[in-house]
Amino acid sequence: MQTSPGGRIGSSTMLVEKLVLGCAGAISLQDIKRLDLSRRKISTLDPFVFSKMHELEELDLSGNRVSGFPINLGLRKLRTLNCNKNAFKSVLTFEQFPSLEELYIEDNELGAPDQYIAVYMLPKLTKLNGKDVDIRDTIKTMEDILQARLDTIWKESFAQRVKGRIKEDEERSLENEFIEDLKAKVTYGPPSLVEFTHHMLTVLAEKQITQETAGLRTNELLTVTPMFRKVVNMAEVEEPEPPAPKPKATVKMIVGPKKNPTASPSGKPQVKVAQVKKVTEKREGSEEANGEVPRQRKPKQMVKTARRNCLRKAKKRRNLHHLQRAEVAQKDQQTKQRLTEVEKDSCSEEASSSSNHSSINNRHANTKGWKEKLEQEEHEATEAVKLKPKKAVVPKAEKKEVTPKISLKGVKPEGYEPIHMLRCHSIENDPTDAKTNVWKCQFEPDPENPSLSKSNVATCGGNTICVIDCTSGKVIKKYQHDREKEEFYCVAWTTLEINNGEQTQKVNVLAAAGTRGSIKLLHTDQLMCYAEIKGERKARPINSLQFHPTEPTWLFCGSEEIVLWDIGTPEGPDLKCKCKKLLRFQAPGRLLGIVVPPSGDFVLAGCENGCYGWNIDVKNAKKDRRHHVEFLLPSKARLAEAIKGEDESDEEAEGDMIDGLALTSDNQIASKVACDGSIHLWDIEEARKGKPNTRKELKVTPDCTLEWCNSDSVYLDIGAWRGGSMLVSGDDQGKIWVYDITKLPSKNANKPPTQKATYVLNWPEDQTEDNSSDSSANDLIINDVAVSSDSNYIVSVTNKNVVCIWQIL
Question: Phi and psi of 321, rounded to 5°?
Fold first, then answer.
């Protein structure tokens, strides 16, 4: 236990022991059950002291400077741990406390993924930051889905590589390759939890490798052949009895080179262990002195023992591996990336987007000031060529860049046809980059008439924002944030009247946000970031942005809560503005989407656990507000509860995940419950006329239900332009579902009518000329879809760094 210079505690083990005994009022370390070391400028813990406190159950380290724990603390009985107000950047070292039931980690350099990781690796944890842990079911469902996808990839690409003996370095190489392949191919969960997804994939992959290679290592007790494994695993096959041991001798099995097994005359498989030497050793005082014969284990028992030893060693190696990596990350205070695995990729891939980052990859790094780059780039659509790594850009200098285009073939148009496919969010301008996630897209409004859209669309992915002309397929503007790592998750447009010192003109401003928890305000005409809004000291990823319909400077920002900002109006040639926080809305769950009806007095949000609404009253002095109503939308889970006759008043059930939310007209809302196979259209003003129950719940009856695909994937958003005629949504099979919402069936008082999709657009077959990238429909997920106000263009963005533009026929 050490402190910074000037602290009250020295580094001597004896002094530390005396201090601990004094704080606990105990005579010996073994007697301590509760220990309070809060606010003592502690930076690390002395394992020589703490490893002796075998009975310690409660430990308070709040208000110190601890950034991590040594990997050999022990404390196996620790049940309550308070680490508030410290300097933790990772929770991996907490895995050595398996009995932990209560954990407090607020006011650290941690984010939401770290909370999920803590719950995932601490099976007995019931309270986190003073709240009941209610995400274990979600984590279990996620684990089942990821395990199924992992099994598929293993069987297709890796199973055939594990057939014979394998060396330890070969096993480690196979494990690293398997983990990297999973991260590249498997996408699940919201953008803000990508690092947790990668952590879970890493853990599951290590377990898979350990199980598949058990008994196959060259240093194992037995060399297990495929036939041997068959004998061991089949209960109905008789096992050959080993020869009886000779008295007064100990028989040792020394395994030589492996030979193929043979079959007995009866047809039953037998195991032949080659070059077995029987070494006799006289043992003084051994069992034979008492007339006992040492028991010899059967081959099956020996293989099971070998497997158990392998699993135990692999688990210890994995735990030690994780803890050592976390400890290295904590000691390096200058690094911006928390490491949870040894990366195998090159430096260029380490600088790639956070969607391919390591298990815990700086989703919530320290927020420090930085200078924004002013880049003016002209993009010319030409043949796909190999690009060199992007060099430093001189301010105000133009730089031509080639955006790789993907040729289209084999497309059968139906309603819409694909006209452009671009890969414009590549890291280092690499045209073969098929790993960067493009998360959101939104059409640019017409400055003279914001109710209509232009043919330009903004897309965000990696550390890049692009503005694309749908007509020509050219990237006409591009903003790149490369001073510090950032991954943009959402964008939103607004139109402001800006006075540049000479005249006042209407200009479109683009807001963008992502992992760093700050909002960038981009002046798209000049392609510059003229302001940055930083939220709380503890950065949280921002998943959703939405401007107010009547107050163009009001911006709703959604993460784990909703914050309403007044971004102000930029003035003068320097575009200076003043940003002000107006309101904060407390959300019951993580925000996935925000909608503000035209009335402007109400905000609706889709969360991971339901659909909630808040009244907007800026004049009210109370700035932190709880939700006013929860809208109960129809879902399969709610229908099942109704059929079973469960009384909802007895126990509050977990709400449905609303992963899609859009405003289709003045009052019509389109919402999608995750994994429910349908999209509901309902009137927000009509629903608000109802009277909520005592729990603020209000049931919603849809005007119409749109049939969607039966998918178990979540966080697949829906898109619409307010007042437009089309509603669009993508799925995890590369399909786009298009609905003409101007031709809906009449409302039925008894049961909402259903409507099938007007068009289902299949992903086009495509291929770059260098054949070096994959943008086909295999493992392709459409993250978001947008449609123009006149419905002439549909834009879809994917998890494979592809933007596809469709045009109406």
Answer: -60, -45
Q: For 206, phi and psi rounded to 5 degrees?
A: -65, -40
> What tokens appear for 206 in the block?
């290590």
Q: Average pLDDT of 13-40?
A: 87
Name residue 530's amino acid. Y
pLDDT above 90 for 653:
no
Whether the CB-CB separation of 744 and 751 falls below 8 Å is answered with no
Question: What is the mean predicted confidence (pLDDT) over 108-116?
Answer: 90
CB burial of residue 482 (10 Å; 0-12, 13-18, 19+): middle
Cα-trace Rg, the chain: 31
pLDDT of 443:
96
Q: Which two tokens stand for residue 246?
A: 């000779």
Contact between 678 and 702 (Cβ < 8 Å): no
Q: At 331, is the secondary structure helix, strand, or coil?
A: helix
Measured between alpha carbons, how far is 598 from 663 in angstroms, rounded to an integer? 9
**pTM of full prediction above 0.85:** no
Query: pLDDT confidence of 535, banded at 50, 70, 90?
Result: confident
How far apart, in whole angstroms, are the C-alpha atoms of residue 434 and residue 431? 8
Mean pLDDT of the chain: 75
Question: What is the per-residue DSSP string for 643-708?
Answer: HHT--TTTSPPPPPPEEEEEE-SSSEEEEEETTSSEEEEEEHHHHHTS---TTSEEE---SEEEE-
Under 8 Å between Cβ of 40 and 9? yes
